[in-house]
Amino acid sequence: MVSTELGYDQLLSIAFSVPMPYEWSVGVYGSLFFHEIMNHNRFLGVRCPDCNKVYMPPRRLCGPCFKELDELVVLPNEGTIEAFSIVNYPFVDPNTGEQRPIPYTYGYIRIDGADTIFSHIINETDTRLIQVGMKVKAVFREKELMQGNVQDIKHFEIVNP
Amino acid sequence: MDHIAIVGVAQTGYEAKIRNKTNYDLVYEVTKGVLDDAGLSLADIDNIVTVSNDFMDGRTISSMAVGEAAGGHDKNISTVEGDGTFGAFYGAMRVLGGFNTTLVVAHSKGSEGSLKHITNAMFDPVYHRLIGIEAISASAIQANSYMDRFGLSEESFAMVSVKNHQNGFNNPYAHMPLNLTVEDVMKSARIADPLKLLDCSPVSDGAAAIIIANEEYSRRAKTRPVWIKGIAHCVEEYFLGDRDLAVAKSLRQASRKAYEMAGISRPVDSIDVVELYDAFSYMEPLWLEGLGFCEEGRGPGMLKDGITLMSGKLPVNPSGGVLSSHALLVAGLARIIEATLQLRGEAGSRQIPEAKTALAHGINGPCGQSHCVWVLSSEQ
Ligand SMILES: [Zn+2]
Fold first, then answer.
1. Which A-chain residues 9-28 have CB contacts (< 8 A) with chain B?
2. pLDDT one-digit tens code per residue, A38-49
3. Is residue A63 part of a domain?
4. Which of A41, B32, B160, B319 has the most neighbouring CB atoms within 10 Å?
5. Which residues of chain B are within 8 Å of residue A27 when distances are taken between CB atoms?
């Protein structure tokens, strides 16, 4: 008879590492947003006529007002740091499958004229040189390398520190 | 059961790829549509059930991304990961539990992911996934088991595809109305024996929403309420090999419970129209047996005898069914919507005259692992 006894080192596992492919629609407003970056190196937002809030990136609805939005507004490529974190732990970038160079700074940025926060990388990793409230400016990819996604913005850099 | 009703319905058209709309757009459009249909405002809605699947959306906690589009700002939102009939079941429970109204919304875009990968991932990673089984090959095994048990022919399944694709012409939302002959189906590409291409539903993008209300709010809505008389669901074993695939055991159990709640003893005499989840042609007769409309093995005979035609005693899938439009998760909610439109007398050219009692049905899991049955009536 076969025994149910099994050594711990005999326990098996199944490895699975095949990525599942997707092709997500960016939608009308998302496509307009990235075209504005590709064509003019600047941002788009959308204003709610009921509460006046400016959403950036633009979206179809104001949630609290449940109002459909269509008043697009052109926004500059500058904003203010609202919060940030300098990330130091090793991390495999799910988009590339490669190790993200550390440290890097994850920023919470309010673009001038917007009421919502945009998230991106800030190219300053020295805690002595970065503060909440500092002005930052988007640095875009070279035009011919742009692909219509969030990586068309390379990072934000601090303006006149 | 307390008196609760479906007071609003909305669905998008179903298409292979809705390129200009995100899931957020689709959810918003049917949410707005269902409020307009019911003549209710968002302030009348006190809770929301979203229906989505993370693997379909390619997003963890996929429900969170559509809450705003579903009008969920500051509201109680809960989620069902499964077919829309199950989401609606939970929505009905919430109304029975004390909410006035539940808005149930389902979405999916089959065009954005790889259905082979996604349905393969339903199965056990140790014993089944690595072999490559997915929805189509599992269903082919079920179709063969069903044929072998009862001596059924592939042609009898092909007839279902002919009927439902033809019915699809009467449904302005249908993805794939087709003029077919049995020969066309028989000669279409053999996908997984015995299933041919035209035995299989298309994969669609789309969304749908309903509002379920208690008696008080059903009076506030502008629509003619469609009363929920009986609802039940039941599940069977996870491993395909543990199940008798030729008999829809959990459907028998679920339908018996729903009939009992609705006070129905002879369903074939009491029900005027059926909308069921025919993801593959063979499923329609197999589910008709499970629903107790005929003896086991007699399902295909119902179509041969003309009973399930638009003109028959028990029309089945006048909308064209899932064979004509198959947005995963949404398709079951679309069955409830179609049944509701029939009972409101608003089904247009697919209307069954004087339909008073309708049955809607959805499935979850491979080969109908679980079934959800709805008995609806135009009369309180
Ligand atoms: Zn607003």
1. 14, 16, 20-28
2. 999 999 999 999
3. yes
4. B160
5. 20-22, 24-25
Beta-carbon separation of A66 and B19 below 8 A: no
- What is the chain B residue with the closest CA to A14? B126
**pLDDT by residue (tens digit) across A10-35?**
999 999 888 889 999 999 999 999 99
In Å, how far are B134, B309, B312 from B304, measured between CA atoms?
31, 9, 11
Residues of chain B contacting residue A20, judged by C-beta atoms under 8 Å apart: 55, 58, 113-114, 117-118, 121
Whole-prediction pTM: 0.97
The answer on pLDDT for B1 being more than 90 is: no
Phi and psi torsions of A66, nearest 5°: 45, 50
**Confidence class of residue A161 from pLDDT cuts 50, 70 and 90?**
low
Ligand 1 (ion): residues with CB under 5 Å are: A 48, 50-51, 62, 65
CA distance B122 to chain A (A): 14
- Cβ–Cβ contacts within 10 Å for residue B338, how many? 27
Q: How far is the CA of A84 from the centre of ligand 1 (A)?
A: 27
Shortest CA distance from A16: residue in chain B: B125
Per-residue pLDDT of B248-275, as tens digits, reads 999 999 999 999 999 999 999 999 999 9
Distance CA B9, CA B223 (A): 10
> Which chain B residue lies closest to A25 (C-alpha atoms)?
B22
Say yes or no: ipTM exceeds 0.90. Answer: yes
Residue at A80 is within a domain: yes
* A90 has pLDDT over 90: no
Phi, psi of B195 (to 5 degrees): -85, 130
Q: Establish if B74 touches chain A: CB-CB under 8 angstroms.
A: yes
Going from the Cα of A69 to the center of ligand 1, the distance in angstroms, rounded, reads 9
Domain housing A61: 22-158
CB B216 within 8 Å of CB B100: yes
What's the whole-number mean pLDDT along residues B131-150?
97
Q: Which of the four pLDDT bands, split at 50, 70 and 90, describes residue A101?
A: confident
Q: For each of the domains in chain B, give its residue range(s) and CATH number, in order of start.
A: 4-114+203-220 (3.40.47.10)
Q: Please give the residue of chain A at the shortest CA–CA distance from B129.
A: A16
DSSP assignment of B39-106, as one string?
T--GGG--EEEEE--HHHHTSTTGGGGTTTTTT-TTSEEEEE-S-HHHHHHHHHHHHHTT-SEEEEEE
Mean pLDDT of chain A: 95
Amino acid type, B98:
G
Mean pLDDT computed over B210-234: 97
Whether B64 has its CB under 8 Å from any CB of chain A: the answer is no
- Domain contains A8: no
